[in-house]
């Protein structure tokens, strides 16, 4: 499991696996409902061009150092 987590667990850490039942009945939201149900804080890219989003994404990934690869 440590491989899945991406690092060796510390002595004070443990992995917990939960099994839950999910509702498999498909919801049928309308387009208007889907847009209005999303919090404003999720719309951070609204109004930006694709180039601006790519530039912002590159800066975020560099800052977070998400370029490393795992085996």
Key phrases:
71 residues, mainly alpha, 3 helices
Describe this structure in words.
The protein has 71 residues and is mainly alpha-helical. It has a domain at 39-66. It has 3 helices and no strands. It has helices at 2-5, 31-36, 50-64. The protein is flat, with a radius of gyration of 19 Å. The two termini are 14 Å apart.
Summarize the structure.
The chain is mainly alpha-helical and 71 residues long. It contains three helices and no strands.
Estimate what percentage of residues fall within beta strands.
under 5%
Average pLDDT works out at 77
Question: Ranges with pLDDT <50 over ≥5 residues?
Answer: none
Major beta-sheet overview: none
Task: Break the fold down into its secondary structure elements and pairings.
Layout: H1 2-5, H2 31-36, H3 50-64
């Amino acid at each position: 499991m440590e491989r899945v987590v991406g690092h060796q667990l510390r002595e004070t850490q443990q992995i917990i696996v939960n099994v839950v039942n999910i509702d498999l009945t498909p919801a049928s939201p309308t387009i208007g409902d889907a847009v209005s149900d999303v919090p404003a804080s999720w719309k951070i890219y609204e109004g930006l061009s694709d180039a601006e989003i790519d530039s912002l994404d590159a800066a975020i990934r560099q800052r977070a150092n998400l370029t490393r690869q795992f085996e």
